[in-house]
Amino acid sequence: MRIARFTTGDDPAYGLVDGAGEKIAEITGDPLYTKIELTGQVYAVSDVRLLAPVIPRSKVVGVGRNYADHARELGNEVPAEPLLFLIPNTAVIGPGDPVVMPPQSQDVHYEGELAVVIGRVCKDVLPEDVAKVVFGYTVANDVTARDLQRSDGQWARAKGFDTFCPLGPWIETDLDVADLRLTTTLDEEVVQDGTTADMVHGVATLVAHVSAAFTLLPGDVILTGTPAGVGPVRPGQRVEVRIEGIGSLSNPFVRH
Description:
With 256 residues, the protein is mostly beta strands. The chain is 11% helix and 40% strand. It has 2 domains: 2-51, FAH (SH3 type barrels, Roll), CATH 2.30.30.370; 60-255, Fumarylacetoacetase-like, C-terminal domain (Fumarylacetoacetate hydrolase, domain 2, Alpha-Beta Complex), CATH 3.90.850.10. It is built from 4 helices and 20 strands. Strands 1, 2, 3, 4, 5, 6, 7, 8, 11, 12, 14 and 17 form a 12-stranded mixed sheet that branches. The chain has a 5-stranded mixed sheet with strand order 9-20-19-15-16, with no helix packed on it. A 3-stranded antiparallel sheet has the order 13-10-18. It is globular. The N and C termini lie far apart (37 Å).
């Protein structure tokens, strides 16, 4: 299933998106917590505004340097264990929403990533049980103030500004993520072209590792790292991240 969160101008609602990505059938309630039931209302996707498909209840967990080629391009070693950092849920925005580049940074970068959405409360999950706790997958752009990342040491500010975590366009619940093509374009020029098969640590390992440290709640999101090709964005440019089997997430960048 493809589950989207959207608005027609009223309160946000959830819906099931068809295979062509053209129609959305409204459902009752929040599918993370309630049984999926159709309301009978169907919209054209082009007639609604897609929102971030999930607003994490407690946290977004990022994973750094999880593609060896990306670690090398920034002059870093690949860590022996997944390198974790936290992003506040206030950083989350949806498709088409502007990423606001803060005055504190002059070197804001895009990072296209696969995002894992957790579906149930869990702790100390074994790798072989990860499928039981994953609700689905979506596309993310882990926007980074690279200059602040270097100067701060800790990554909370560099990764956590408001609007720095675009998610969308929807959640795909049935997907084999072992080898999915991930591309990022900057003003329609391809700047990242990788595959999830190149992750140093796969999704099962990441969820198990994260859950060994933090209790995960329904709607929490884990960002799985980015392939090589990251780079700076200028105000007025648009970044689109596309992942095979899910779809594309596009956001303009503007200066605060």
